[in-house]
Structures are given as structure tokens and as C-alpha cells.
Amino acid sequence: MKRRLYPAVLERGPRAALGAWFPDFPGCVAGGRSQEEAIEKAEAALARAVDEMAEQGRSLPEPTPIDQIALPRGADVVAYFIVGVDPPDPSERVNVYLPKSLITRIDKRATELGMSRSSFFGFAAAIALDWRGFPHAGLGDPRSKVHKTGAVQAGKRAGKKRS
Predict the structure, then answer these.
(1) pLDDT 10s digits, 8-30
(2) Is 108 left (phi over 0), alpha (psi -120 to 50) or beta?
(3) How many CB atoms lie within 10 A of CB 61?
């Protein structure tokens, strides 16, 4: 799917704050102390909303023309602006086998980041693919844990004289 251009409304709020919202994405709002901050946060909010819709298998709405935006009564509109968004690639279900302890750690971290398990795997894989200094050592290590049962001592052996 090609890039979509969605209109946004920039409004003045209480205490000189600015808020931005998208008519095509109810609940997708952002705010800031400056126009630049509000727009930057709005762009990030729209990207998250589009990702969430894609994860849920929902199609994106058609952009509303600016002249057809229904403004709420009493809105103090500062400006309209357009945010372009590239929809994510379609997802494909895959099965992977991982140690349960690793899955538990992944789920915990994904929750801390406000992500789903699938989003976390995609995020981690994208980082690993782009990371030029990715350490290759240890990637083929066995999953089983080995514990030492004894110790090796260096030094004199009984019955043998060192010269």
C-alpha cells in the first residue's frame, strides 16, 4: 500500500498548550508546548495508531479532505497540517521455537515497552538486521545449561618432582 496523507487539526488549548488530532483516527491525539512539539508528537501518535490497526488486521481509513473536517463547537483552530504515513508491510504468521524462559523475558520486556510479543520480535529483528557491529559469537551456543561439577587445579601433581 502506498503512502497515505492524513489531515490533522492543530488547536490552541488551555495555558498556551497546543493539541493536535486526526479526524480519521478518533482518539489519536497529541499535545505540546510549541507548534513543533505538538506536530512531532502527532506524527508519532499517528504512526502508532497505523501500526496498531495493521496488527489488528484492520484496513486504514480513507483520508478526509480538509474542507470536510467537522470541527467541534468552540474549537480554537490554529492550523491544519498533513502527515504522510507509509503503512507497514503486511504481516505473515510464523512459528518459532524458543526456550520458555526466553519467551517469559520477552513478554515481560514487551509489556514494559507497551508492545505486543509480535511487535517486540519485529522490533528486535529490525535492530539486529541493521546493526553492523552485531556480535556473532555465541549465536550457535547450545540452549542447555551446563554446570561445573568439579575444578581443575594447575600446579604440582602428587608423585612427580618439578625441576
Answers:
(1) 999 998 888 999 999 999 999 99
(2) alpha
(3) 14
